[in-house]
């Protein structure tokens, strides 16, 4: 396997349209890295530049330390799995998986051995004599992955490979791809717009927006320590509550803000903010606590019961809409008056330019506060508000 390094890589099309704007990044050997972001952010373009399917306008691409900008796709030692399966309908599964080896003049016995090894890994042995039209979507995607495996590439590249599958099958394939990565120990770069795929599969996530890298880190690092408003709003489902706030006072280890008609002391460093500044207060739905002792009031306008959890949409007393994640056993219905508590040690503050203010104490990357509990630990109650 290999590592991949991008050094200030840019892509500009005719007319001066720059879609990749100076990306620098290292994918370590055996790492599973996911490029994620909204449609049009440049994630697929960046993947195609690594694959050699798009020219690099400027900057350097290094594969195991060797500059690969001018290498042809076949010379880079990579294998790519596309959104469309791109299988030959007249060929059997075995022939589809071994076709690239046949073109490379690999001996028939060796070709057969490699295909059988991949088929065992992907549980495709019963289907080797079938044609793609006789397979399910998930099986066809396995064939496309098998076609990449037999080439024993340095790096696997996946371009939204699960987007054509239904929700249940996507969940199954996420598990299978993660397990496959562990078995092969393969360096993998995976593109998706689905943050659930990114959070559940990646060793490292690269969040892209408009051709720029917004943040790079482990899934829980991005979730608990978003670098800016964009990452905070993009990572996490339901989305983080982002609320207008005003700075009242700053100290070395806290910023006091007004929001939701109340005052909160947030344990962050006041880098670049002063009294009177407008800021954004962020709190994830599972951190807003639905408890009788809560100081925030509101009315439930929608209750989404998802079995293991319940999502409450609450119109607060000052008219702000809040999303609250509670336990699946929560029976609160539409129209109910509720009390909420906002633990400030779980809150985030973002400057007017969108950058997050750093927390005084490192944010934990383990399990978060449990939403929907009826008892509030004493250690939390002192952080609700000031």
TrEMBL record:
One of its GO terms (molecular function) is ATP hydrolysis activity. It comes from the Bacteria. InterPro entries: AAA+_ATPase (IPR003593), ABC_transporter-like_ATP-bd (IPR003439), ABC_transporter-like_CS (IPR017871), ABC_transpr_MalK-like (IPR015855), ABC_transpr_MalK/UgpC-like (IPR047641), Mo/tungstate-bd_C_term_dom (IPR008995), NA-bd_OB-fold (IPR012340), P-loop_NTPase (IPR027417). The keyword Glycoprotein does not apply. Residues 4-235 form the ABC transporter domain. Keywords: ATP-binding, Nucleotide-binding, Transport. GO terms for cellular component: ATP-binding cassette (ABC) transporter complex, substrate-binding subunit-containing; maltose transport complex. PANTHER family: MALTODEXTRIN IMPORT ATP-BINDING PROTEIN MSMX (PTHR43875), MALTOSE_MALTODEXTRIN IMPORT ATP-BINDING PROTEIN MALK (PTHR43875:SF3). Belongs to the ABC transporter superfamily. This is sn-glycerol-3-phosphate ABC transporter ATP-binding protein UgpC. It comes from Ameyamaea chiangmaiensis.
